[in-house]
């Protein structure tokens, strides 16, 4: 009986090992098939970008490894280093997305004159769609062109001239805020400038003086936090997957700050689905 029991266990374990091996082989084949399919879909991009210089691109993640372990505040330095190494143009594979860093004025002129220059890339506009929804900032080209023509008369020179007094007024408030910080070693100049910009936008576009620079500083802090979290989603490629972003700590903070933003601006939304992308 004892030997028969051992034999049964051996057979059972052998079957389990066989199932595991088969599942592993199937998973590997599926991953390889998916990767080859992705390469085939992107074949034109690989062909046209073959002779364009750029940093080393690894399989699957491309050049995203350069940003994976860095805080968001250091990402700009990485981009700056790339511009110094490739002074005219550089290709950067960010996962399966091909990006071009263009610094030569001749190339930039050609791009800006292209009819496709207003197209939005899903990689970098993914998180910002949660903030701005379907606005001109995130709208598709056909929508952007249609609505941009409708609001163009609002930006004529006469109307812009009428805003000069507001620019001056808010700039003086900004200068006063800087004077209060004379002698301090570390000044959050970005936050102060953001508050000034928000005051100007609210007063010119909506006709409401929110006094953000002097009283309601929460809006500037919330916006700064939201944009920092949006950049985290942009730079960390695994956060492109919606449910991973929604369950992550940055994703939860992003949603909380969106609620604060909408409550401050008076645009509170009952829709709970902020993170559906």
From TrEMBL:
GO cellular component terms given for this protein: endoplasmic reticulum membrane
Cofactor: heme
Primary location class: endoplasmic reticulum
Keyword annotations from UniProtKB, A to Z: Endoplasmic reticulum, Heme, Iron, Membrane, Metal-binding, Microsome, Monooxygenase, Oxidoreductase, Transmembrane, Transmembrane helix
Its membrane topology: Peripheral membrane protein
Protein's UniProt keywords contain Endoplasmic reticulum: yes
SUPFAM superfamilies: Cytochrome P450
Spans through the membrane: 21-36, 56-79
The UniProt record lists the keyword Nucleus: no
Family matches, as Pfam families: p450
A GO molecular-function descriptor: heme binding
Subcellular location: Endoplasmic reticulum membrane; Microsome membrane
InterPro entries: Cyt_P450 (IPR001128), Cyt_P450_sf (IPR036396), Cytochrome_P450_Monoox (IPR050196)
Coiled-coil ranges from the UniProt annotation: none
Family per record: Belongs to the cytochrome P450 family.
Purpose of the protein: May be involved in the metabolism of insect hormones and in the breakdown of synthetic insecticides.
Protein name: Cytochrome P450
Organism: Acanthoscelides obtectus
């Amino acid at each position: 009986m004892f030997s028969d029991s051992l034999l049964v266990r051996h057979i059972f374990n052998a079957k389990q090992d066989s199932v595991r091996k088969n599942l592993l082989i199937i998973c590997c084949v599926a991953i390889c098939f998916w990767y080859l399919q992705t390469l085939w879909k992107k074949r034109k991009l690989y062909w046209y970008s073959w002779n364009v210089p750029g940093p080393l691109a690894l399989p699957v993640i491309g050049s995203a490894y350069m940003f994976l372990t860095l805080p968001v505040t250091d990402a700009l330095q990485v981009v700056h280093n790339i511009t110094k190494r490739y002074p005219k143009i550089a290709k950067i594979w960010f996962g399966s997305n091909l990006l071009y860093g263009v610094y030569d004025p001749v190339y930039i002129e050609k791009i800006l004159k292209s009819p496709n220059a207003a197209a939005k890339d899903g990689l970098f506009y993914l998180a910002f769609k949660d903030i701005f929804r379907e606005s001109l900032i995130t709208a598709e080209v056909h929508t952007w062109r249609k609505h941009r023509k409708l609001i163009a008369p609002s930006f004529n020179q006469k109307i812009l001239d009428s805003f000069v007094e507001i620019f001056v007024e808010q700039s003086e408030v900004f200068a006063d805020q800087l004077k209060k910080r004379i002698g301090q070693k570390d000044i959050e100049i970005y936050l102060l400038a953001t508050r000034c910009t928000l005051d100007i936008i609210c007063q010119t576009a909506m006709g409401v003086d929110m006094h953000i620079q002097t009283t309601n500083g929460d809006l500037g802090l919330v916006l700064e936090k939201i944009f920092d979290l949006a950049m985290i989603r942009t730079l960390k490629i695994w956060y492109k997957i919606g449910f991973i972003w929604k369950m992550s700590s940055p994703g939860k903070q992003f949603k909380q700050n969106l609620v604060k933003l909408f409550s401050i601006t008076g645009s509170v939304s009952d829709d709970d689905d902020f993170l559906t992308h």
